[in-house]
Amino acid sequence: MRIAVGLLGAGDIIGNGLYYHWYQDAFAGFTFRYYGFEWVHPLPEPFLSVYFLAGFGLGIAVALGWRFRLTAPLFAVCISYLFFLEKAHYLNHGYLFMTLCWLLCLTPCWREWSLDVARWPREWSSVAPAWSLYIFPLLMGVVYFYGGINKINHDWLIRAMPLHLWLERRAEMPLLGPVFAQKATAYVMAWGGMLLDLTAAFLLLHRRLRWVALGLLLLFHATNHLIFNIGIFPYLSLVLTGLFFEPDWPKRFVGLLARQTYVPAVARRVSKWRAGWQSRVRAAEVTVSWQQVGGRKKVYLLIPVVIFHLLYPLRHNLYDSDVNWSEVGHRYSWRMMLRSKQGYGVFKIHDLRSGEQFEVFPRDSLDRKQYRKMCTHPDMILQYAHHLRDQYAAAGREVAIYAKFVVRLNGRGRQAFLSDTVDLARTNWTWGDKPWVLPESTEE
User: Fold this and answer.
1) Using alpha carbons only, how large is the chain's radius of gyration in Å?
2) Averaged confidence pLDDT in the chain
3) pLDDT tens across 12-60, in order?
4) DSSP 403
5) Would you give the distance in Å from CA 345 to the centre of its chain?
6) Count of alpha carbons within 13 angstroms of residue 420, beta-carbon side
7) How many whole angstroms separate alpha carbon 237 and alpha carbon 94?
8) Contacting residues for 147 by C-beta, under 8 A, at least 6 apart
9) CA distances from 241 to 217, 245, 246, 286 (A)
10) Over 295-314, what HEC string results?
């Protein structure tokens, strides 16, 4: 887990730096911020470049287990900063990965296969507290199960939407393209994905059926990786799925490789290296107590974390609006790949002093991803309206701002998204339903 999180996180940080910062320069202008984290801003140069390089280095250090108790929290800070830097880049697995990084800091995962143990053999331990083994499969089980619960809706099961739309775009792929183009394929994948998500965690808990579940999940994540651009999520999911198996399976796997004559000698050397420093520990007659590798206080700290992840994804049921349309309760709820949503719009500005009226086209000042996300998310539309309000206020102008946006959801016709009679400059963000978001028509 430590090695995978370090390597995946290092790759994610440097990948975002290469593409969004050094190539697109996406953080130079306006950025959408999460409510409660408005204070997170892009660092000025050269500090932002230093951050991406340092975050990459910290990820490698975590993977290697080098000064883990220092580098792991710093790495978690870097991952959190990347997550909160731009709301338009929100992904469910980004939120999951950030959570995992902070939880990993609490575990004694540096006590095996690490540079820390190589330098200080007394740090080695063959045991770990049970909570540190159970918390990660539990979270992965929550992701699978709630992903299945969220798929129980009319569009996904009855219309096979938006899956059919996405599969049609892969019709030109060799071999599999004609299969993806069939509507029946979308129905099979929609129902199969829902059933697999609902049952995956329970199958993985069964000693015999877990191998069946692993095979199905390998196929599931490989298909997702082939069809969708979802970054590190398939790899991260498979690593977390592996934690449902016996805790010593990585050691046994490496030992098996080391015994095969066709495996490069490096595997055998790694096995000898591990045996070498373990013998140094035994020679020193060192034992590591339970209190040294974990404590009961950490268990109590994890209780509210578990309760939060069990209850918070259900909050959209408290509201009347469809979460896929209004976005109320969408984030942090494992609502993955459930909607295809496109929109466009304009802001109408009314100068209250001069009476002048004019339009502002947000696509002229936002990058493509920001504009695409904003047009379908009411909170981001409101945030950008407040940005415009503040800009005009700084220039000594008092304005009213109205939004005219049109949105299309899961292949239905385009519909008016917001009330164009509500002054967003004087509208505050609130939890729950927003009266200025128009109800969705479900007509095809």
Assistant:
1) 25
2) 89
3) 999 999 999 999 999 999 999 999 899 999 999 999 999 999 999 999 9
4) E
5) 28
6) 14
7) 12
8) 197, 334, 336
9) 9, 8, 11, 33
10) CHHHHHHHHHHHHHHHHHHH
Q: CA-CA-CA-CA torsion for 227, 231, 235, 240, nearest 10 degrees? A: -110
Instruction: Give the orientation angle of helix 183-205 with respect to helix 130-150, to 10 degrees.
Output: 150
Q: How many whole angstroms separate alpha carbon 200 and alpha carbon 378? A: 34
Q: Which two three-digit tokens encode residue 364? A: 């002229």
Tokens linked to 383: 């945030």
Tokens of 80: 């959190």
pTM higher than 0.85 for the full model? Answer: yes
Single-letter residue type at 33: R
Does the pLDDT value for residue 284 go beyond 50? no
Any idea how long the chain is? 444
Q: Where are the alpha helices (DSSP H) in 158-295?
A: 163-168, 177-180, 183-205, 210-227, 233-242, 249-259, 265-283, 290-293
Other CB atoms within 10 A of residue 179 CB: 13
- The DSSP string of 306-370 is HHHHHHGGGGGGGSSS-HHHH-TT-TTTT--S---EEEEEEEEEEETTT--EEEE-GGGTS-HHH
